[in-house]
Structure formats: structure tokens, C-alpha cells
Amino acid sequence: MRCSGPRLKKCLLRTFPVASWLPRYSIRENALGDFISGISVGIMQLPQGMAYALLAAVPPVFGLYSSFYPVLVYFIFGTSKHISLGTYAVLSVMIGGVTERLAPDSDFMVWDNVTNSSMVDTTVRDAERIKVAAAVTFLSGIFQVIVLGLVQFGFVVTYLSEPLVRGYTTGAAIHVIVSQLKYTFGINPVRHSGPLALIYTVIELCYLLPQTNIGTLVVSIVAIVGLILAKELNSYLGKKLPVPIPVELIAIIVATVISWQVDVEGKYGVDVVGLIPSGLQPPVFPEVSLFGQVIGDAFALSVVGYGIAISLGRIFALKYGYKVDSNQELVALGLSNSFGGIFQCFAISCSMSRTLVQESTGGKTQIAGALSAIVILFITLWIGALFEDLPKAVLAAIIYVNLHGMMKQFLDIPLLWRTNKIDMMVWVVTFILTVLLNPDLGLAAAIGFSMLTVIFRTQLPKYSALGRVPNTDIYRPLENFNQVRNVPGILIFRSSATLYFANAEMFQDALGRKFSPLFSSSCLFVLPPPRPPPPPPPMHALFLLLLFISSCHYGVNRKTN
């Protein structure tokens, strides 16, 4: 195949979408909205990035790095105009499980001669956890680019049904909440891993409650109540204000000032963020020796992160009338994560809250995302150190309040009970498996269960004989409508499931039951009666309404004629 000029240009534009839309960028139509949106989202990225870094069990400043490098990469390779890439709670807690499993506190205990007791060397521990987070992030990006992206595997997300995704994210939100309780109460439980780890953690938290730091608890309660009230005020005034009130930014500024003035760390033992180095980290290739230990976690991260991003991307693409390339999105996310892993970031995806802010404040192109990254760069280089006295309990409070959307997903259960009980089972089982088995194993088990329900649906389909409503072209089940009548000489049989080897016999039985007065005994698959049956009425055609029929079971239809 010759590489002609037009073909090469088309390939380059598909690989680098920014080269396609940026030259046609309309400053008059888009610049103001993108500018306001980028500043607004960048302000949101600051508290969320620092808070979600705690979920990933790395120092808060690495949440800022993760809100900068990957976002710039996505600006070049991404095709969605509206999603806001950056730190995401579910992925952060998944990474936190990996970092705390491979770099637990118990491996970094040292003897303190001043207090005559052992303590955790947090400097060495955090350095090791950063290496683990970077390794799993880099590997997840490689999975997205090579294993999924280059082999055009974007369709894999179609197997993640909406009930599965919503049940999974709700279960992961429970892990997020439990992981932050230690910052709320000022206690330090031992990290558990494997199945039932969440249950063991909750039990240990209950044992440690008598050791609660009252100062930390007071800070947490005040922060949670204040954030909830401010969010409600923001919602009430939302239509009257051009941009939302930056509630989280105000919260961390106020908390930092009060913490610095009162010295809550020295007087009350409240844990604060601590040293925030200015500047950016130099690129460091992740440790290859860690890849074998995180390969399963990396694959789970790649699937979940892509599933969330492409779902939101398609929603906004449909709303605004453009197309999101699912396979290019895989490549864009993969490059963002692999490039971010080299700069010691942790895995990123799309946040619903930031995306809604980006859209509502006028963001129309990927320029808004690039501007938000520039805001984070400015904060990281010049003013990040001002937040060293910020209590970690306030960051935990920000996480709690931002999870209210996921908690509302519990309302799916009564709705699904009324509309589709199998989908409700998928939601509930996915939630339970995620809570009990941890997010990585829970996702694999939930996908397996979801596949089983597909088989289950084919085993219990709805069969119906259709008739026509008089004087119309509308057909309805005969057993449900009294006015519906058979079309003379024509029988119509509908099955809600595909016809294949596992349900072929049930299909034959159901067809026989529906039209038993019209078929001979051989069609009913029972022993012949003692005397010949009456001849069937004249029938010109039998219509079978099926979604799909296996090629090896055309004979089933021949037996009915």
C-alpha cells in the first residue's frame, strides 16, 4: 500500500485531533467562554486534586501534578470538547489500595529516641508509594494505548452496562468514604487488603474510636456542615450567577488561614498537609520491577477510567451534535496516563462535577481544559506552599461532599425494581461485590455476573402471539388485549430473546403452546393421541419475530411448518 499525501494527512489528523480543530478555532465565538470555564475548572482542580491525592495515599502536591501533565496531553490527542480530565475519586481509591498494599506503614517503622517508641518514616514511605502509583499509572496507560487502543478495542465498554457502572461507582464510593474516616477522626488504622478488607477496616475503626482526636473531629464537622450549606446556596443562586461560587477553594483558604493562626497542629494535634515543594518534578521512568505486581490493577484502572470518560464524552457529544472517536479516546487517555506516570502522576479520568462546571460556564472546546492546566501550573509554581497548614480533615470533608452524586445512585434500586428486575440484580450484585471484594476484584466479578444475566435473559424470554388491532396496522399480544384479532391465514409469534442452541427446545415448546389448536401433534412434541387430530385451519404464513437466529437452528422453524 502506497502512502499518498492525502492518506498521510488523514492519518496525522486522526492521530493528532488538535491539528484538525485548532486552526478553525473561532476566537469571537469560543474564547470568552473557554477562558471563564478554564479558570473555573482550574480553581476546582486545586482542592479536588489535593483531596484525591489522599485517596491515592500520596502527598497532596502530586494531585496537582496529576491535574496538569495529563490534561495537556489530552488537549492534543482528545476528541471530546466538554469533558474535564483530571483526578477522579474512584480511580484514586483504587490506586490507594495498590500503594498501601505494596508500601504499607509496617515496612517503614523506625525507632524514635525522643519518645522511646516506634513511628512511621513518612518521607521514605511516601517516596515508595509515589513509585508504586507512577508504575501502575504508566502501565494502565500502556494498556489503554497498545492493548486496547491500537487494536481498536473501544467497543469493550459496551459490555459495561449502565446498572453495572452505577452500582460499581456507588460501591467504590463506599471505599472512598471509609478510607477517609481516619482523617475525620484523627486515628490511624492498620491497612487491610484482599477480600473483606473494607469490613475489617470498619471493625478496626470502631475499636479505635475512643482514641479520636477531638480537634480533628471538630474541624471535620465544621467543614462538612459549611460545605453542604455553601453548596446548597450555590445551587440556589446558580441561575443568577454567571459562574458558580468556588466553594471548595474558599473552604481551603479559610481553613488554611485559621489553621495557621490558631496552630491547630501544634496545640490540638490536627494533621495538616505539610511540606508542599514548589516547582515541578523531573521525569523519571517508572520502576519496571513493580510492573509484575501491579499488572492486574493497571488493567482494571484502564477499563474503569476509559469507561467513565467515554460515557460522559458521548453524553455531551450527543447534546452538542458532534462525534467522539471511542478508539482515539483510548489512545488519548492512555498517552495521558503513561506520560503522567513518567512525571509521577497517578491515573486520571473524567469527573462529572468538573465537566458540568466546564459546560455550564461556557466551555466549548478543549482550550478550556488547557487553561485549567495552566491555572494549576501557576498554583504549583508560586502559591502551593501557602497551603501547607491546611488540615487533611478539610480535604476529607471535600471528598465526602463531592460524593453526594454517587450516593444518590441508591435511588436507582426502586426505579429498576419497577422497570427491569434483572438490571436491578446487576446493580445490587455489582455494588455488593465491589464493597466486599475491593474495586479491582469486584469489577471482574461484576462483569462475570453481568455476562451470566445475558444468558439468563435468553432462558426466560417473553413469548407472545400477536394479533392486529381492528382497523389499524398495530399488533399487540392476543392474551393481553381483548379487541386484538388474528389475521386470517397468518400467525405471528414473537420472542424477546435470540434463538440459539440453549433455548431452541423452549422456543419449540412455547410455539406449540401458543398455537396448539392450530398445529398437528407432531408440532407439539408429545405422544400422538389415540385418534388423528382435526385438520388445522388454512394457514398461508407463519411470521417469527426474532432478534437473532443461530444458523444451526433454522431446522426449528422448519419443524413448525
From TrEMBL:
NCBIfam families: sulP (TIGR00815)
PROSITE patterns listed in its UniProt record: SLC26A (PS01130)
Membrane topology annotation: Multi-pass membrane protein
InterPro entries per UniProt: S04_transporter_CS (IPR018045), SLC26A/SulP_dom (IPR011547), SLC26A/SulP_fam (IPR001902), STAS_dom_sf (IPR036513)
A single GO cellular-component term on record: membrane
Domain SLC26A/SulP transporter: 33-430
Main subcellular localisation: membrane
Alphabetized Gene3D superfamilies for the sequence: STAS domain (3.30.750.24)
Compartments, record wording: Membrane
Organism: Gouania willdenowi (Blunt-snouted clingfish)
TM spans (from-to): 52-77, 132-160, 208-229, 241-262, 290-313, 367-387, 425-456, 539-556
Protein name: Solute carrier family 26 member 6-like
Listed Pfam families: Sulfate_transp (PF00916)
GO molecular function, one term: secondary active sulfate transmembrane transporter activity
Keywords: Membrane, Transmembrane, Transmembrane helix
